Amino acid sequence: MKVAIVHDNTNVTQLLQFLLADLGHEICWHCSVSQKAIDACRANLPDLLLLKLDMPDMPATDLIRQIMSNTPTTIIVISQSVKKQPGRVFEAMSAGALDAFTEPSTDEPQSIQDLKRKISNINSLHKSTSVPPLPIQMQTDKTLPLVAIGASTGGPAALVNVLARLPENPHAVIVVIQHMDKQFSEGMAKWINEQTRIHVEIAQPNQKPKPGVVYFAAGENHLVLKKSGHFDYTAEPVDYPYRPSVDVFFESAVTNWPNKMIGVLLTGMGRDGANGLLSFYNRGMLTIAQNEESCAVFGMPKAAIALNAASKILHINDIGDAINDALRNNGNKS
């Protein structure tokens, strides 16, 4: 990949350059001024941009929005105190950053290995290919629907928009798969919980989901639904480029959830969730993809639309209302 660095600390920039070169990636440019980064992206767009979260000359959210508006690319924000400022992290992700990470340091060798792993995962995302769609499953008509939502880049803001439009106690189980490291999942659930009427929590192993609750997948491993209807986490498949995977959860739901389902695919890079949404569609369920106009990155929804997996393609402002309408109609396509 071509990688660019925006950071005002020369030592950190040099360490990042060394790590990236060790992984075989090309450093296409680096700078210490936000405006120069905007110009550099226009002149030489990187595949991945590593951006300091607290650049002194411009708020990270403003810089990310300008870059994603004019020259969209994959952005990871880094900071010495990422865990201490989850609100700023989620604001950056809402603006279009894919993820956030603690600044690597030679004093903490694990931080270097963790950043290498993340960059390798993103490299795999750029190289990801489609997998065969799932076979059509039999449909069972029961009363409690499942609303399954997948999101990645730009997801936090999109999720708040959708969930804030739902009633306080919807008669449905709602599960969100957002591409995110485990260290941020608890903070993001709390952040969204403060901005919506619905109770939001992290899905726990062997937990049986209840209606009226939004369950977020913790990072690291993939969330799945077991035949018993309980949640679980699995490391398989280990070769998926990003965790937790939307496709893995969607596919487990198609296999093990006996009731009506609504599948939603929001803004995000790559194609995770496209085949899973197709499996929902093949079961006769309502499937919604966010439209290009309102996406931070029109990757995941675009892939689903290309498979004809979306029965509705909607602006983000209309998706919550469409879910409400479908729940009133017991999850049917129309």
Structural class given helices, strands, pairing?
alpha/beta
- 3D shape: globular
CATH architecture of the largest domain: 3-Layer(aba) Sandwich
Compute the CA-based radius of gyration: 19 Å
Largest sheet: 7 strands, parallel
**Low-confidence segments:** 128-141
H/E series: EHEHEHEHEHEHEHEEEEHEHEHEH
Number of helices: 11
The CATH topology of the largest domain comes to: Rossmann fold
Superfamily at the CATH H level of the largest domain?
Methylesterase CheB, C-terminal domain
Average pLDDT confidence is 88
Tally of DSSP β-strands: 14
- Could you give the order of strands across the largest sheet? 8-9-7-6-12-13-14
Q: In percent, how helical is the residue content?
A: 25-40%
State the CATH class of the largest domain: Alpha Beta
Determine the strand fraction and express it as a percent band: 15-25%
| Structural domain count | 2
Gap between N and C termini? 43 Å
How would you sum up this structure, described in words?
This protein is α/β, with parallel strands linked by helices. The protein folds into two domains: 2-127, 3-Layer(aba) Sandwich (Rossmann fold); 146-328, Rossmann fold. The chain contains eleven helices and 14 strands. The protein has helices at residues 10-22, 34-43, 60-70, 86-95, 109-127, 155-163, 182-193, 246-256, 274-282, 300-306, 316-328; strands at 2-6, 26-31, 48-52, 74-79, 99-102, 146-151, 173-178, 199-202, 213-216, 222-225, 231-234, 261-265, 286-290, 312-314. The strands form three sheets. Strands 8-9-7-6-12-13-14 form a seven-stranded parallel beta sheet, sandwiched between helices. Helix 3 runs parallel beside helix 4 (86-95), helix 4 (86-95) packs across helix 6 (155-163) and helix 9 crosses helix 10 (300-306). The longest helix is centred in the middle third of the chain and has 19 residues, at 109-127. The protein is globular.
